[in-house]
Design goal:
Layout lengths: L2 H17 L3 H13 L3 H18 L4 H17 L3 H19 L4 H16 L3 H18 L3 H12 L1
Length: 156
Amino acid sequence: MNAWRAAFLTTAITAVLAAQGTPSEWNDRGLEAAKRGAHAEAEDLYRQAIEGWKAKGPEFDAHLATTLLNLGQSYCAQGKRREASILFEESLVKYRRIFGVRNEWTLTAMNLLGAVYLMLGDSSRAAPLFEEALPLERERGHGGRQGVEQRRTSSS
């Protein structure tokens, strides 16, 4: 089977699957596709999930923010860092509003956004995110030497 035919069949199958399901199922299928390295398929599924979450309204913004992060990570895996940064920014705004700054999801979005800013060569935007996140991660026992020591002690 030639590459064009395989791509066409993958797109057709993705379209059929996307027409059936819920935003959560589409997101999960996107995760599975991304894990296989099928990023075009994952992107289609994440976009379907994003539209589904948006249609459900603002009470589903936490789910929407998670799917935005997933799509952003898929973009990063393909080198589409500028596009990923936009998704990470939107996700971070939602997580901050919903959960506050000390939440694990918020901190994850901050770290992903900071990392992509560094990859884009924008340390002036990355530094404030890391400066905000690191002390909070340390409080939670997940950052720096203190976090490592705490995990070692708790697993003994």
